[in-house]
Amino acid sequence: MNNKLSDIINILFIPILFVIAIWFVKGFELIYSTPFHEYGITSLDINRITGIFSFPFLHADFNHLINNTYPIIILGGIISSVYKEISNQVFFFSYLLSGTILWFIGNPEENVIGASGIVYALASFVLISGFIKKQPRLAILSFFVIFMYGSLFWGMLPMPNKISWEGHLSGFIAGILIAIYFRNKGPQEKIYNYELEEELEKERKDIDINYIYKKDE
């Protein structure tokens, strides 16, 4: 039991650490009545560029916080389990790129807070990577993401509410870029026996051709 718990903690270490951090920030705000919304991100404002690093840790209320907590745990767990050797890099790039892209394409009149961009980046990474690598297991994960976060695509459309669709879109774009960057990392497309035989036969013919060419010289 302890070993299983230890394995789970090891797999989810970074997502759990991030979730603890965002809940700690919200708790600090409530206890000391000190909102940190001023540390959100405002696009194209050079004075608020540091918001790229701080805005994912800030949330408007507990509902906002909870809605970002469980997807980070679930998606972070999927990525940490399947993409073990690059999972930390994927999470870090999701955090950094989602905010950076938002700073460039967001609404300069809005102050954006929340980890939704990271959620969209993680979901997008799983979705796109599953199709790029052409592995059945990863493709299933991709469809799982589509099923579980069916509203994923709607969240990237302009809507008359307080939700930053630009933040969601920025995260989704970040996930695509990360999936492309790590396309040769993690689980790869399986090569079946007949494909190996064809490859070996091709290499054998190349050797024969080279041998004949050199022999004629």
Instruction: Enumerate the spans where pLDDT stays under 50 for 5 or more consecutive residues.
Output: none
Average pLDDT, all residues: 84
For the biggest sheet, the summary is: none
Tally of separate helices: 9
Classify the secondary structure makeup into a structural class: mainly alpha
CATH topology: Rhomboid-like fold
Helicity level: 55-70%
Estimate nothing, just give the exact number of structural domains: 1
- Taken from the alpha-carbon principal axes, the silhouette is globular
The Rg value, from CA coordinates, equals 22 Å
Strand residues, percent: under 5%
What is the string of SSEs from the N terminus onward? HHHHHHHHH
The N- to C-terminal Cα distance equals 70 Å
For the record, what is the CATH homologous superfamily label?
A: Rhomboid-like
Count of strand segments: 0
Write the topology of this structure.
Elements: H1 2-11, H2 13-31, H3 51-54, H4 62-82, H5 87-105, H6 116-133, H7 136-148, H8 165-181, H9 193-216
Helix pairs in contact: 2-4, 4-5, 4-6, 5-6, 5-8, 6-7, 6-8
